[in-house]
Structure formats: C-alpha cells, structure tokens
C-alpha cells in the first residue's frame, strides 16, 4: 500500500504563491500517473492537475492553467504543486493521489493523502 503525505499548505494573500509537496512511501511516479485534487468548503472534489512522469506529460484544469505547475522528483519520491497568482477561489483542501487524470472517474484514484489546507485570504 502506498502512503502519501502532503505538506506546504497555509494561509496566503491573494496573488501570493505556495508550493505543496507530497511524499510517497515507495517508488510510484515512474509507473503511475500522480494527481492533485482539491475540495473547496461545501463543494465536491475537483481535479486540479496530473503528471505522467514516464511520458513527460502534464495536464491542468482550466481553472489553474498558467498559474499552477505540477512536477515530480522520482529520486525523492516526491510530487509537487507550485501555485502562483493565488485567488480566493483556490481556497480548498488539496490532496495528492496515485492514479487519475483528466476526466478520470474517482474510482481510478488508487491512494490518497490526508490533505493539506490552502487558504487564500487578505
């Protein structure tokens, strides 16, 4: 079973930046897609971004395209999400997950982290 632990969340002002990290308990990035998913207060899960390291491909939701960057360090078994130009609507709990991808059903996400809170507010 893969364990995923997110970190890096916090309170940031609109227009600011944060970098989220997700440490995996074992090598997984070279064989699986890895994704970031968020859940805003009172709303459902929203796919944010996915990376297929073995294909050198990344995908983003339209709501974050041009502002967020997903990356992976295979040697460190760590996934990242660099978030720039943050907006109040980015406020959510952010989860990393193994699997998934653009328009993938939720049952294709194999493992989930515990989540990290991102709050964008002045």
- The span between the termini is 40 Å
Largest sheet, strands/sense/barrel: 7 strands, mixed
Low-confidence stretches: none
Helix content: under 10%
Mean pLDDT level = 94
The rough form would be described as globular
* Percent range for β-strand residues: over 45%
Structural class: mainly beta
Radius of gyration: 13 Å
Q: Write the H/E string, N to C.
A: EEEEEEEEEEE
**Discrete helix count:** 0
Overall number of strands = 11
Main attributes of the structure:
4-stranded antiparallel sheet, 7-stranded mixed sheet, 122 residues, mainly beta
Written overview of the protein:
By secondary structure, this protein is mostly beta strands. 0% of the residues lie in helices and 50% in strands. The strands form two sheets. Strands 2, 4, 5, 6, 9, 10 and 11 form a seven-stranded mixed β-sheet that branches. A four-stranded antiparallel β-sheet has the order 1-3-8-7, with no helix packed on it. It starts with a strand and ends with a strand.
